[in-house]
Each structure stands twice: as structure tokens, then as C-alpha cells.
Amino acid sequence: MDLTAFFTLHKDLPREGPGLPEDVRWAVELAGTHGEARICDAGCGPGADTVTLAEMLPEAWIDALDLHAPFAEATAARCARFGPRVKAWAGSMAELTGPYDLIWCAGAMYFLGVTEALSAWRKALTRSGKVAFSEPVLLGGDEPQAVRDFWADYPGITEEAGIVERVEQAGYRVLGRRLIIGEPWEAYYAPMEARIAELRAEPVSEALEGVLAEGEAEIAQWRAAPERIAYLLCVVAPA
Prior knowledge:
Number of strands: 8
Largest sheet: 8 strands, mixed
Distance between the termini: 40 Å
Radius of gyration: 18 Å
CATH topology: Rossmann fold
Order of helices and strands: HHEHEHEEHEHEHEHHE
Low-confidence stretches: none
Structural class: alpha/beta
CATH architecture: 3-Layer(aba) Sandwich
């Protein structure tokens, strides 16, 4: 894939994966995060969830990082109104130092692996620290072809039990879990559809056309089975 073309499509999208503010609020409340907590938004994308965290926890100190520098810059601009308590920069989520009361990671943990990320992040948590993350999940039973096509590039996907097993392998326990399905995906794909239409209003390069076609195909696969394509949001703590 041409990365320049890929980021041309994704530039200025409000978020880089499915989710809604209520998903963040559910996780924060379950984790018991409050007051002057130290939080990390790992793989923050353009900062949609960073904003929710900052609004929900007005006394919290939040670090947001993403490997893609323009996303980190977009988060910094979006969160400038919160002042110095929210900082964003380009960096690897494999190298968190903390200490954090909560590490939030929306749809990005698969870059490291669930067990691998949780194992690496243990040293970055406070004694009562928690991790909240979302991970692709199969719902079980006979999966429609659209679901198999959608997840074809992620052979490591499992059902819920497989995710729980990976959590436990890292020495953590699951405090709660919640499916991200339906509307949270629309919140991601509707702006992408609009962005594709905007870019198509002008002649595009062959590389960009390929990326736009891939984006359309992904959206079509999701729309073919929106009730079967999901992430699992988990809140976990060291056992």
C-alpha cells in the first residue's frame, strides 16, 4: 500500500477506528479512574478519545501518542484548549514508561499483540492501574463470507474466549467487557465515505485511486454484515 495515498485518505478524519464517547466513559467508570489521574491514550490517532478523556476527567493529566506524527499533531491541536494537562507527541506505544492509572488503547493493540502489550505495559502502571483496550473479535457460529473477507488480513482474530486467554497469559484479569458493534462503526465509516467522495471530486493518482477503492471495499464488507463485525472492549488489571 502507498502510505502517502493512505494518509491522504485518512487526513482530517475525526477518528481512526470504531468507537463512541460512551465507550470511553464506560471503561473509565469501570476502571474507577478519577481526579488527578495519570492517563495514556496509546495509539491516539487524531485524538477523538483523548478529547473525551479530557472532558470526562477535568483534573486528569493525559499523555497521547501515536507513531504517525501527523496524527499526534492533530491530537495536540484538538486538545490545545485543555492546556498543559494534555500532551501529545509521536512515539511508540511499545515504550510506555508511566506511571499511569489508566492506559487507553482503542483498536491499536493488535500492532503489538494483546499478551505482548499487556506484558510490556505492566511496568508503566501504578499499583492500582488498569488497561482498557479494544480488539477485533469473532462472535462465534457460522460467520458470513463478508465477515471472513473483512478480517482476512488479521488471521490472529479469535472469539471472546481467545482474547480473555491472551489477557490471562499476560498475568491480568478481566474486570469487564463490552462489544463495539453497529453505531460505533458508522461513526468511523460515515466520515470516511464523505472523505472518499471529496477526494473523488478531483482527478486522483493511480496510487490514491487504489487506496480509495480499498476503503470503499472495506466499508461495503462492513455494511454487508454490520451486526457481525465487532471489537471487544475490555478493562483489565494485573492479577
